[in-house]
Amino acid sequence: MLVDTHCHLDASEFDGDRDAVIARARDAGVTRQILPGTHADEWPLLRDACRLDPGLHAAYGMHPTFLEHHAPEHLDLLGEWVRRERPLAIGECGLDYYVEGLDLDAQQRYFDGHLELARETGLPLIVHARRAVDAVVRSIRRFGNVRGVVHSFAGSEEQARQLHQLGFLIGIGGPVTYERAKRMHRVVAAVPLDQLLLETDAPDQPDSGHRGQRNEPARLTRVCDAVAQLRGMSPGALAEATTRNACRLFNLPQ
Question: Which of 50, 67, 61, 54 has its CA nearest to residue 123?
Fold first, then answer.
C-alpha cells in the first residue's frame, strides 16, 4: 500500500470526477493521500474534500506563490485552524525563487510564521522550495526543533544531506520518471531510504507516460516503480519503506 504524501485533490480539476479519482487510487493501492492547503480562502473547501474518504488527510498552510491571497492576519487564523482541526501537518509553505515578481521578503515572513507554528505544535511541515533549497535550509536552522518534508525535491545530494541532518525528508514525484532528470536520479539512488517519500502533486507533475495530462494519485505506482529501479530494489519493498516513512512523519497508523 502507498501513501501519496502530496496531492491537491481538492483542486477544481477534480470537481467532475473526484469520487472516481479516489476509487482509482484505492484500486491502485494508494490508500491514503495528504492534501496540503495553499491559502486561507481555500481551507474550508479542503476540509470538506477530506471528509469524502477516511484516507484523505488535510494540511493547512499558505503557499508562497499565492501571495495575493495572503494577509498578515491569516497567520493567526492558521494557528486557529491548526488547533481546531488538528491536521497531520502544516503547509504547503516555503519559498519560491523561480516565479518572477514575487515579494521575497513577504514570502520569508509567511514562511517564518509557519516555522514558528510548527515549532509550537510539533507538527511536521510540508515545504515548497523551488530554486530556494539553500534559503529553506537556512530558515530551518534559524528556527530549529522542526521537522517535515521538502516536497518535489529537485536539489543536490549535498542539499538532501543537509535536510536529512535537520530531520527533513524529501518528496519524489513524476519528474523522476523522465529520462533527462539525471541529477534527480543520482539523488534518489544515493539518499538514505528513510529520507524518501513518494508523491504525485496531482493534478500537476504527471509522469513521463502522461505528460501534458491531468495527474492523479493512482499514478503514484509509476513513481514507485521508477524509484525502486533506481535503488535496485523491488517496488513492493520500496512501497513498504516509503509508507513506513510517511506513517512516521505524519503520525499515520501503520
Answer: 61
pLDDT beneath 70, residues of the chain: none
How far apart are alpha carbons 32 and 38 in whole angstroms? Answer: 20
Check whether 210 is labelled as a binding-site residue.
no
Q: What pLDDT is recorded for position 253?
A: 84
Q: Quote the distance between the C-alpha of residue 87 and its chain's center.
A: 14
What is the predicted pLDDT for the residue at 254? 75
The answer on whether 70 is annotated among ligand-binding residues is no
Question: CA-to-CA distance for 222 and 16, rounded, in angstroms?
Answer: 24
> Tens digit of pLDDT for each residue in 8-56?
999 999 999 999 999 999 999 999 999 999 999 999 999 999 999 999 9
Give 164-170's long-range contacts (Cβ < 8 A, gap of 24+): 164/191, 164/192, 164/195, 166/137, 166/140, 166/141, 168/127, 168/140, 169/194, 169/195, 169/196, 169/197, 169/245, 169/249, 170/195, 170/196, 170/197
Q: Could you give all domains of the chain from N- to C-terminal order, each with its CATH number? A: 2-250 (3.20.20.140)
Spatial separation of the C-alpha atoms in residues 239 and 38, rounded to whole Å: 27
**∠ CA 130-185-189, rounded to 5°:** 115
Please work out, in degrees rounded to the nearest 5, the angle formed at the alpha carbon of residue 36 by the alpha carbons of 11 and 165: 145
74 is in an annotated binding site: no
Cell numbers at residue 181, please?
532528470
Contacts of 100 (CB under 8 A, 6+ apart): none
The answer on whether 92 is annotated among ligand-binding residues is: yes
How many residues are listed for the chain in this entry? 254
> The pTM is what?
0.97
